[in-house]
Design a protein that fits this description.
heterodimer, A: alpha/beta, Rossmann fold, six-stranded mixed sheet, four-stranded antiparallel sheet, B: 13 helices, 71% helix
């Protein structure tokens, strides 16, 4: 298992947002995480990415205990994520956004920059981030534009480019298709599928059940903070508990 | 040439004050660039001023060494302070650093060795104009280069979004602390220089008024790049001299100019000489590129 959580629990006041969740993601797997609103999906990935600390439970990455590590350490260890509602650095350029994503993979160049010298032509970090900008379909020409100027859908793509820049072992996508129109959503599916094809391990949180069923090998369902089902998309679709808790209230084709 | 030298001689104090103000504005710019509002730099300036002046007076320390120790004293003080105050954000951070400034001021007021309320008099005028402007050049160059480095980008990221920064692997706390401590170092150095310009120093030179003044220099000048604080310090320090013929109306005009700048140039005076690489989407003609 690349990532494993054991009995992970998080309470906010009297509410148990995540309740004793055991989750495993194998190397090269695409795991979908679904559940009704307020099921605890975002809290769970906030725990995994270190944005909030767990009250009880263990998180293991490649077998070693990473529970309680701060977010920046987990990022250095290879956990990259996007945010629900997009958190690109709006006041910075597209290119700088992606370069910041490479922060943990770059050596500090402060001292080197103090010595005046002609600009080096082949900067591997710059080249790499430019190719990532293209990879997610943003277009190299917009590298110098402010991230905040991009349309919403493109900001989501930029967030993915930024996350990929750290060469992650696990990519967590928090509702990458939320608020997208069908065309943008289809483009996002193509992007996720190509990332999967490259062998990246992906944890996908998504409201668009169709997208999850089509792209994920395995799906985990949360409800009221508890894991209520874990299986292949087909198994999930026929699971009575899921139907009752989730699919019964959502229109699913 | 003679005319220039005459001008330099006549206004040498003002020119020195502009240089010192620019250094101070750069010291607070550092934390502002990382999105943190701190108001402790007047106190760090005071620490540098008192430490360097006392070292010269009591131990007969050579001037450069006294300056250096003064600057490092400020930085050493900033380190534990930063660890504590950066638990706070926004106005709470500003108030905490302001409180630190008051503590420093009161200690200076109460301690015999610092001359209590009378301060220190008869500090030898060892600072030459070129000392100040060489320091300014070095500091501005270093900060300009650092701005485009991995650390500079991390500061900008923290200013934009702390949670997203941490998720990109940026150690947010350490980067804030670094900005704060380097800022204190610069402020302490500036304090030492200014003490040896003005002949005398007293605790009121480094109080609330100074703290706010330094912030205003940086904000009016503009935070996007290092030219902003220098420009702000230059314009706002020279303004009273330029407006001198207005006599009693001077303060009114000065206030009005300040207000106009803040309202119409929210990114500061530096807007006029914007050197960002950023280009508007519309100008690239890439609005419709998918």
């Amino acid at each position: 298992m690349l990532l494993e959580t054991v009995g992970l629990t998080k309470r906010f006041g009297g509410v148990t947002a995540v309740d004793r969740v055991d989750l495993g993601i194998a190397e090269r797997e695409t795991l979908g995480l679904i559940g009704p609103n307020g099921a605890g999906k975002t809290t769970l990935i906030n725990l995994i990415s270190g944005v909030v600390g767990a009250d009880v439970g263990t998180i293991r990455l490649s077998g070693s205990d990473v529970t309680g590590l701060p977010a920046h350490r987990l990022a250095a260890l290879g956990i990259a994520r996007t945010f629900q509602g997009v958190r690109v650095f709006k006041g910075l350029t597209v290119h700088d956004n992606v370069l910041i994503g490479r922060h943990t993979r770059m050596r500090s160049d402060v001292l080197a920059r103090l010595v005046p010298r002609p600009r080096q032509k082949a900067d591997p970090d710059r080249a790499r981030s430019l190719s990532l900008i293209e990879r997610v379909g943003l277009g190299r020409r917009r590298a110098d534009a402010l991230a905040g100027e991009l349309p919403y859908g493109d900001q989501r793509r930029l967030e993915i480019a930024r996350a990929l820049a750290s060469e992650p072992r696990l990519l967590i996508l928090d509702e990458p298709a939320a608020g997208m129109n069908p065309t943008e959503s289809a483009g996002m599916r193509v992007l996720i599928e190509s990332l999967r094809g490259e062998g990246l391990t992906i944890l996908l949180i998504e409201h668009d059940v169709r997208l999850v069923m089509d792209t994920c090998q395995r799906v985990v369902v949360l409800n009221f903070g508890r894991k209520i089902a874990d299986g292949t998309p087909t198994e999930i679709q026929h699971d009575p508990a899921v139907r009752e808790a989730y699919l019964g209230t959502e229109a699913v084709a | 040439m003679d005319a220039v030298l005459d001008l330099l001689r006549t206004y040498s104090t003002t020119i020195a004050v502009i240089g010192v103000s620019a250094l101070l504005a750069l010291s607070v710019w550092l934390t502002l660039y990382a999105g943190q509002l701190t108001l402790g730099n007047a106190a760090f300036m005071g620490v540098g001023a008192y430490v360097s002046a006392l070292l010269g007076r009591l131990l007969d320390a050579p001037f450069p060494l006294a300056l250096l120790i003064g600057a490092f004293a400020a930085a050493v003080l900033a380190l534990p302070l930063g660890v504590i105050v950066f638990r706070l954000r926004g106005v709470y951070l500003a108030i905490a650093t302001l409180a630190f400034g008051e503590i420093v001021r009161v200690i200076l007021l109460a301690t015999p060795i610092t001359g209590k309320g009378q301060g220190l008099n008869g500090i030898p005028p060892k600072t030459e104009l070129w000392h100040i402007y060489l320091s300014l050049l070095v500091v501005a160059y270093v900060l300009w280069r650092v701005q485009g480095s991995t650390i500079g980008r991390a500061w900008a990221a923290i200013r934009e979004d702390e949670i997203a920064s941490a998720s990109q692997g940026i150690a947010v706390g350490q980067h804030k602390l670094a900005a704060f401590v380097i800022g204190a170092l610069i402020a302490g150095w500036a304090g030492g220089l200014s003490a040896h310009v003005t002949f005398s120093i007293d605790p009121s030179d480094f109080g609330f008024t100074k703290a706010v003044q330094v912030l205003v220099f940086a904000v009016v000048g503009g935070v996007p790049n290092v030219l902003g604080p220098i420009l702000g310090a230059g314009v706002l320090t020279a303004l009273p001299e330029v407006l001198r013929p207005l006599k009693d109306y001077r303060d009114i005009f000065q206030g009005a100019i300040l207000l106009l700048v803040i309202i119409y140039l929210p990114r500061g005076l530096v807007t006029f000489i914007d050197v960002r690489r950023t280009r508007r989407l519309s100008r690239i003609g890439a609005v419709d590129v998918a």
